[in-house]
Structure formats: C-alpha cells, structure tokens
Design brief:
This protein has 895 residues and is α+β, with helices and mostly antiparallel strands. It is built from 31 helices and 25 strands. The protein has four domains: 147 residues, Calcium-transporting ATPase, cytoplasmic transduction domain A (Distorted Sandwich), CATH 2.70.150.10; 336 residues, Up-down Bundle (Calcium-transporting ATPase, transmembrane domain), CATH 1.20.1110.10; 161 residues, HAD superfamily/HAD-like (Rossmann fold); 182 residues, Calcium-transporting ATPase, cytoplasmic domain N, CATH 3.40.1110.10. Helix 10 runs antiparallel to helix 24 and helix 12 packs across helix 24.
C-alpha cells in the first residue's frame, strides 16, 4: 500500500525539528522504510544535479564564422565563383579557413572539460533506513531521509538538524565565511541568510568537527547548491566589447562599399558598360573595402596575448576575454580566498594588562609584533595564555610533517600561535597529560580540559568572553567591563574572539572544574589574514582608474576590517551594506541607488544579489570583472563580462563558470591580465588603423580611376593579394607588440568609445589620401607618359601600393605633439623586431611575385622597365616621408 508523499516546506529553517519530521512523515528514531524511500525517489527523482551543458566542438567551430566581415567575404567568394574567378574565390575561402581554424584550435585547447557540480555528488552518505544505519550513494538520498554526518564527510543534501554534538561545518564555498559554522537546533528568523541558518546542513559543504543527525528537506536542484547551479545556467553572457566594435566597424565599411558600388553601377549603366565588368568592379571594391586580414590578425593578437598570460600562470578560456579584461573598469571581488588567505590566524593578543597585534610564523618558530610592545612575550601571563590555548585544544599541527593540520581551524591557529611563540605544544601536553574534557556546547559556550600537574590538577578553559568573565571571581566589575569592551572592539574590527582562563586545583576536581574560581589570563582575536600581495595590486588598480568592490557572504565587520587592511577603503570609511539593505530595483529611491553605487563593501550578500549588483554596473555601460573561488561565486562569474576564478583554492564550479583562471591564485595576476589586455587593445587599435588606412587607399585608387574613366588600375585578385600578404603581416607585427609602458597609468578606455573614433577616421583618411595620391600619380604617369599598357599599368599600381602600405607601418608610433628626431627613429614600432621581420618578408614576397613565373601569371603581372621600377620605389617612399614631415612640423597625425 502506498503512503502519502510529503512535500518539504519552503522555509525549513523556520520550523521546529519535531514539527518538520511530522510534516515530512518520518520517525527520526528509525528513518524511512525502504518502500517509502523508493516511492519518494520515484516521485522526486535522484539526488543529482543535471549535467552542466558543455559546448560541442561544432558550436566552437561555428562561432568562428560569426561576424559581419566574415559574411561579406563569403558573399565576395560566391560572386567570384559565379563569374569563373576560381582563384579569387579560393583565396577568399582560404582566408576564412585560416581565421576559423586558428580560433577553433586555441579555444578547444583552452576549454576546461570539467563537470564540477556532479563531482560534488559522488561521495557516499549514511542514512537511517528502517532503524538501521546504511551507507548509500548520495544520489539515492531523498526527502525525509534521516542523514547522519560526522567530521570528514561531505553533506549529501540539504537537511534540518534534530541532534548534534559539537558539530561544525565549513560552508565557505557556499556562503563565503572563512570560519566553520557552529551548528545547533535553534530556529533562526525566516528571512535569515544562509550563513545564519545554524540549524541547517547544506549539500556540498564539509563537516570539520563533531557529528549530528538531520532530516533531509531538499535534494538535487531543490538544494541551495542546486539553486546556484540554476543561477549559473541562467546567467547570460553578453557579446564582448571587441566583438561589438569589430562588427560596428565592419558595418561602416559595408555602407561605404554599398554607396560606392551603387555609384559605379549608375555610372557604368550610363556609360553602357558590361554588367560583368560592373560586377567585377563591385567585387574589387568589396575586397578593397573589407580588411580580410583583420579577423585573422585580431585572433592571432589575442592568442599571442593568451599564451603570454599563460606563461604568467593566467589561463584564458576564450580569446576575446583577453581584450575584455583590458577594458575592465569595475572589479567585484570575493573576500575569502581572494583578498584573504582562506585560513585562520591569531591576530591580536589581549592580556589583562597589555595588548599586541601579532603575526606568528609556525615554521620558523618566530612571532612578529606588528603593534605593541615586544616585551609582551616575556610576561608570565602571556606564557600562561599560550599554555592554556595548547591544553584546551583538540587539534593537531606539525609544521614539518606531511599531515600538518587536523581539527578545528581556530584550534589549529592556536597551535601555530604557540609554535610562533617558541613554545612546543607536544612538550606542554606531555608535561600536563589530559585527564578529562568538558566539551563545548551552545548552552554553556565554554570548553574545559583537566590535566595532571606536579602534585595537583590544572584546569584549562576557553570560551565566550562573557561566560569566562563571570567565572573569574577575582576580577571586579570595572575590570570585567574593561575586558568586555575590548572584546566588543575586537569584534567590531572583524575579529572572532575567545577568552582563556585557568585554575590550579590542589584536591581532586569535580565535574564542575570549569565552572568557577577561574583565573582570567586573556583574550585572543582571530582573523583570516589578507594576502600580502593584494594591497599593492589594489593600489595599482586605483592608479589605473579601476573601481574595486568587495562582495562577500561574510559578516560586515570582518569585511570592513579586511577592506581597510588591503587598502580597498580608507581608515575613515566605515560603511558596508548588507544583503538586507539591498532592495529590488523597482522599489529603490534615487537615494538608495546612489548609496549602492557609492558603496565599496557589500556583506551578507546572496548569489542572486551579486548578479543584481553586476547588472547595475553593466546597465550603465561599465565593463565588469568578477573574481571568486566558491560555489556561491559561480553565477556572478558567468554573468560578469570577465569572470576570474582562483585555480588553486577555487571550487571546480567556479573554475567552470569563469572566463579566466589564476593558476597561482594571486590578485596581482589580475593586474597583469588587465595590463596585458590594455596593451592588446592598443595594438588592435593600431593595426585596425593601419588596415583601414591601407584599405581606404585602395578604395580611393579604384574609385578615382573609375570616376575619371581611367580604366581599372587594380584587379580583384591583386587587391586580395595585397590585403592578405603585404597588409596582414605588418598588421600582425603591430598586433603582437609588447612595448607600451604608460597604459596602466591611464584610466580605462570608455567602453562606449568605438574602435575607430572620428579623429581616427580623419587621420586614416589623410594617410590613405597621401598613399593613394602617390600611387595614382605613378599610374597616370606610367600609362600616359611612359605609354604602359593596361596590364603594365596594373602591375606598376600593384607594386607601388604594396610598397607604400608596407612602409606605412612606421607611421604608427604613439606620442602626442611634435616628435623629436630620436622618437621618430626609436619608438615602440622600430623596437618591435616583428615589424622588421614582417616588412622584410613582405618585400621578399613582392620580389618573388615579379621573378617567379607561376605567381606573376596568377596575379596578371607584367615585366617592367628600370624607369618604371624606379617610379615604384619613389611611390612607396614618398608617402612615408610626407607623413613624417607633416607630423614633425605640425604634431598632427599620431594614431
């Protein structure tokens, strides 16, 4: 007979354990029966997350054929084949294939083939079925199962606790909190964030101490981990800025082609020219207008930057992400594991009469006093504090062994503190062997251990400050108030505090040895320390005009403390907005919006709220980067323009969602990436300027000759050859240049700024006019004065234009104002060895086209006289000399 299937409540944290088990129809003493479990599994399905959708190789290959330029070239190839110009058609196809294969191979190699969410599901689970403990696959867990957990296990599903013993769970991957969460059965408010739901266990988190029993309330996509997976799947990635800019540029060129083709069509029909000749001219114009090599060069420039970043332990998954990083002007960063080291250290020691901020080095056995008197370590009260922290401690830490750390992170930190104070915990424990322990509980909030000493017993006690102080009768009220105030100040500074006390017991101790007559020995404050390299990296971001914002699930006091230590905010700033402060966009006032946009620290923020914050900045046109390492960061990593995951500490979920992975987990690598991205974008801007000016010169040559009815000075295949060979290689040399030392001292470029500004178009037009003028002058002189035939005129135009464009690369060095002679000969262009290699190679190719019969015939080239060859050299050099002279005299013409 089938039992009625129960539905879990929407807010299980707000329901008492006995009421929840009744609602779910389960006896906590025996668990579900096998039949009940089978029925629920049949209804709800397995406790598994769906496979993350993975791009197929076909999708990656198809993406390489996106873009307006690609389709214009496809159209030009079709027209060429239709009219029997198979050489031109195949040449265009080869260009398209080179671009596609280059991008495809690099993206395929860079792809991280991980199914990380499912990897978090493979651990076994222990449940109570029919009154017996069973070990089953976590996929077989179902709603209503009684789940048993203990230290070292991964929680298999979301569940509510009804029994616990010193249970602590590491939830940092889900909530962003550094410290393990202490678990109990107390009900939080219904709207409590995940980090404050202490009566719940969450799928994918790790039990670090104690044990407990809980009833499962959510499986698969019903879990908090499943909700994060849905957010990752639903977070849409917008087109990259470079993709958009290249497409916009292509559209401008297409309008130019359309206008000129229309003009030629009208003029040709008026003149009575053949349709085939008109279409051939249109194809020539299309080939002249579209920089065929632009996509190839952009791909290779990005790939070169990608490989250069890989050498510095920065892995970029997609080519366009390199450029996107360079344009980033806002970075959202997680705290735990990104700005901090994701470990707990002793930060502050407060004795009854002294205080110091410290930095212990357990490996070296030294202790740095960062604030306070060095003599504090010689005080007997300090040594007693260290002794108590060693004895009232269940952790193990051995600096020079493979198994270094075992136990609660706070207790491990205390042992590191002891080693740093040059006190050996093993020796202390041997001197004071333990007899019994009074375990910590949420009721007493105190832990005590009893030890055998010489002729007496010694009690070591630690716990909440207020609990310890009330058990120390020797302290008067003003002293207690002073220590309580110190503790509150430390908590306000983001530190987690523990108080320590001891007691010498001459006679046999009773069970209440930790409850009275204690001697207070001090307070210790703990903090997840900031990474040492972060502060200089954030200073570099500030100099580069990049706004960095912390978004964390941790407490606001802790977030503010870390923010100050890493120079994210100044000492006077004390505002952190929490998730409860963030209202839905449609309910915000203008004042609320201003407060959010000015805030630099957000705490207790859910994964969904991180998405909303990123969306706010993207809507106002910012290019947003997001760093993180936890499961809770994954949706924001995917939503941002450039998601940056930590490769060493990062969860595989985060790495899967990110565009870029830092193999060394160093925040400085982000600055390296931004710098590299800016250099690449500047290089791309320069080679686009180079290609556009070269293509405009070709358009002018063909257009002016056509309007003046001087014949066709260039054949389509000749233009295509120039664009592919003599344009691409100098452009490629510009694209892989490294030398630009001032970019990280400038604010980020406005993402709304097009790749070619109005000023850039003017400069490119002047470049083109000078080159076209020289080439047309040679064409006219050769055909009119030297009596060259049309094929010979085509030949002299071909070589003149090719040489002028090759040498044009030396016009594209940076620098405002009138250049010095030294700058004209010693700049980032002349220092770029690839430029010299490219220009030499292109000149050699031109020589080969003249002397190799096969090439000469394919390009319809003719032998020329010495005087014609001299004209070619003159037409190639004159534009460079003219443009350099103008720039030297007027300061106008910088790219």
């Amino acid at each position: 007979m089938e039992t009625e299937l129960k539905t879990p409540p929407e807010q299980p944290q707000a329901i008492a354990a006995d009421q929840l088990t009744q609602t779910l129809g389960v006896d906590p003493a025996t668990g579900l029966t096998d039949d009940e479990a089978r029925q629920r599994l049949a209804k709800d399905g397995p406790n598994a997350l769906p496979d993350a959708e993975r791009e197929s190789w076909v999708t990656i290959l198809a993406r390489q054929f996106k873009g307006v330029i690609v389709w214009v070239l496809v159209g030009a190839a079709v027209v060429s084949f239709a009219f029997g110009d198979t050489v031109e058609g195949f040449a265009i196809v080869i260009v398209l294939l080179i671009n596609a294969i280059t991008g495809f191979v690099l993206e395929l190699n860079a792809r991280q083939s991980m199914d990380s969410l499912r990897k978090m599901d493979v651990s076994p689970a222990r449940v109570l079925r029919g009154g017996q403990v069973r070990e089953i696959s976590s996929e077989e867990l179902t709603v209503g199962d009684v789940l048993l957990v203990e230290a070292g296990e991964v929680v298999g599903a979301d569940a509510n606790l009804f029994d616990f013993n010193q249970l602590e769970v590491d939830e940092s991957a889900l909530t962003g909190e550094s410290l393990p969460a202490s678990k109990n059965t107390e009900m939080p408010p219904a709207d409590a964030p995940l980090g404050d739901q202490h009566n719940r266990l969450f799928k994918g988190t790790a039990v670090t101490a104690g044990n407990g029993r809980a009833v499962i309330t959510g499986i698969g996509q019903q879990t908090e981990l499943g909700k994060v997976a849905k957010l990752v799947e639903g977070a849409e990635k917008s087109a990259t800025p470079l993709d958009e800019k290249l497409d916009s540029l292509a559209k401008v060129l297409i309008w130019i082609v359309a206008g000129l083709a229309g003009l030629f069509l009208v003029l040709g029909l008026i003149r009575g020219e053949e349709v085939k000749q008109l279409l051939q001219t249109a194809v020539a114009l299309a080939i002249a207008a579209i920089p065929e090599g632009m996509s190839v060069v952009a791909t290779i420039a990005l790939a070169y930057g990608m490989l250069r970043l890989a050498e510095q332990k920065v892995i970029v998954k997609r080519l366009s992400s390199v450029e996107t990083l360079g344009g980033t002007n806002v970075i959202f960063t997680d705290k735990t594991g990104t700005l901090t080291q994701n470990r707990i250290d002793v930060q502050t020691v407060q004795l009854p009469d002294d205080r110091a901020d410290i930095r212990p080095d357990a490996n070296a056995g030294t202790l740095a006093i960062t604030n306070g008197e060095p003599g504090i370590v010689d005080k007997e009260t300090y040594k007693m504090l260290v002794r108590v922290s060693i004895l009232c401690n269940n952790a193990e830490f051995h600096p020079h062994q493979d198994t270094r750390e075992v136990g609660d992170p706070l207790e491990v930190a205390l042992l590191k503190f002891a080693y740093g104070s040059a006190i050996d915990p093993d020796a202390v424990r041997k001197q004071f062997p333990r007899q019994t322990e009074k375990a910590f509980s949420s009721d007493t909030r105190v832990m005590g251990t009893l030890h055998q000493a010489d002729g007496h017993q010694f009690a070591a006690v630690k716990g909440a400050v207020e609990e310890i102080l009330t058990r120390c009768p020797a302290m008067d009220e003003p002293e207690r108030a002073e220590q309580q105030a110190v503790s509150e100040k430390m908590a306000a500074d983001g530190l987690r505090t523990l108080a320590f006390a001891y007691r010498d017991i001459p006679d046999k101790a009773g069970d209440d040895f930790a409850d009275h007559d204690l001697i207070y020995t001090g307070l210790i404050g703990f903090l997840d320390p900031p990474r040492l390299e972060v502060a200089p990296a954030l200073d570099a971001c500030r100099q580069a005009g990049i706004k960095v914002i912390m978004v964390t699930g941790d407490h606001p006091e802790t977030a503010l403390t870390i923010a100050r230590q890493v120079h994210l905010i100044q000492e006077g700033e004390a505002v952190a907005l929490t998730g409860r402060d963030l209202k839905p966009l449609d309910q915000e006032s203008d004042q609320d919006k201003e407060k959010v946009m000015q805030c630099r620290v957000f705490a207790r923020v859910s994964p969904g709220q991180k998405l909303d914050l990123i969306d706010r900045y993207q809507q106002q046109g910012d290019v947003v980067g997001m760093t993180g390492d936890g499961v809770n960061d994954a949706p924001a990593l995917k939503k941002s323009d450039i998601g940056i995951a930590m490769g060493m500490r990062g969860s595989q979920v985060a790495v899967e969602a990110a565009d870029m992975v830092l193999k060394d987990d160093l925040f400085t690598s982000i600055v390296t990436g931004i710098s590299q991205g800016r250099v690449i974008f500047e290089n791309i801007r320069k080679f686009v300027m180079f290609l556009i000016s070269c293509n405009l010169s070709e358009i002018l040559v063909v257009t002016v000759a056509g309007i003046l009815n001087m014949g066709n000075p260039l054949l389509p295949l000749q233009i295509l050859f120039i664009n592919i060979i003599t344009d691409v290689f100098p452009a490629l040399a510009l694209g892989v240049g490294r030398d630009n030392r001032e970019l990280m001292k400038q604010p980020p470029r406005d993402p709304k700024t097009p790749l070619m500004t109005t000023r850039d178009w003017r400069v490119a037009a002047v470049y083109a006019l000078v080159m076209a003028g020289a080439v047309l002058g040679v064409y006219i002189y050769g055909t009119r004065q030297l009596g060259l035939s049309q094929p010979a005129g085509n030949t002299i135009t071909f070589y003149s234009l090719a040489l002028a464009q090759i040498l044009h690369v030396f016009n594209l060095y940076s620098g405002e104002g009138r250049p010095s002679f030294r700058m004209m000969v010693d700049n980032e262009i002349t220092r770029n060895r690839f430029v010299w290699i490219a220009t030499t190679f292109c000149i050699l190719v031109l020589v080969l086209t003249y002397y190799v019969p096969f090439l000469r015939e394919a390009l319809s080239l003719q032998p020329l006289s010495i005087s014609a060859l001299e004209l070619i050299v003159l037409a190639g050099i004159v534009p460079l000399l003219v443009l350099q002279t103008v720039r030297k005299l007027t300061g106008w013409g910088a790219p």
